Amino acid sequence: MDLKEIKAVLKLIQDTDVEEIEVEQDGRRVRIRRRSHHAAPSAFSPVASMPPAPVTGVLPSAPDARDTTSLITVESPMVGTFYRAPAPGADSYVREGEKVEKGTVLCIIEAMKLMNEIEAEVSGVVHSILAENAQPVEYGQPLFLLEPA
After folding, report:
1. Could you tell me the pTM of the whole model?
2. Do 73 and 145 lie in a common domain?
3. Tally of domains in the chain
4. Residue 72 maps to which CATH number?
5. Which domain holds residue 109?
6. Cα dihedral: 100, 92, 30, 12 (round 10)
7. Does 89 score more than 70 pLDDT?
8. Which residue has the higher pLDDT, 101 or 18?
9. 85/144 same-domain check
């Protein structure tokens, strides 16, 4: 899917009640989700919005030697820029060691000037935050490790 096709999809759903749409074409998948009513303020405007950098390194390892086989990985559902807080200077949505419930907003990923809230799909404790604030992330990149409750 090219940018023109994505813009056409955005325009089609703009005046509808559709909350989320996922389109797959030729092995490429695009998921668009509207911000919930609890979303970050619309005044959120990062200082710089850079295109995603190519992934060239190894994914970060767990910060300690504890067994991580029971942890749940929260992956990026899209390519974009990862933000830990709703606005510059605001408190982070979550911190390592913090308990979260299913549906808790963990972060925002900005994609094509849209702020997409990423929510916990299970209740648990934030074991690790694997992405750096205001840095590009790739589709499927691990963002958090959650210890299920």
Report:
1. 0.56
2. yes
3. 2
4. 2.40.50.100
5. 35-41+65-149
6. 100
7. yes
8. 101
9. yes
In a domain, 49, yes or no: no
Give me 145's structure tokens.
Answer: 């490790």
What is the token pair recorded at 93? 């949505």
Asked if the structure places residue 13 within a domain, the reply is yes
In this structure, what are the phi and psi dihedrals at residue 109, rounded to the nearest 5 degrees?
A: -120, 120
Average confidence (pLDDT) over 97-109:
96
Say if residue 146 is in the same domain as residue 73: yes
Cα-Cα-Cα-Cα dihedral sign, residues 31, 37, 39, 40 = positive
- Confidence (pLDDT) at 68: 61
Three-state secondary structure string covering 78-103: CCEEEECCCCCCCCCCCCCCCEECCC
Q: Are strands 124-129 and 20-25 parallel, antiparallel or unpaired?
A: unpaired
pLDDT for the residue numbered 147: 95
Torsion of CA 137, 138, 143, 145, to 10 degrees: -160
What percent of the chain has a predicted confidence (pLDDT) above 70?
72
Give yes or no for a contact between 117 and 89, defined as CB atoms under 8 angstroms apart: no
Residue 55 lies in a domain: no
16-75 pLDDT per residue, tens: 777 777 777 777 777 777 665 444 444 444 444 445 555 544 445 444 445 567 899 999
- On whether residue 60 sits in a domain, the answer given is no
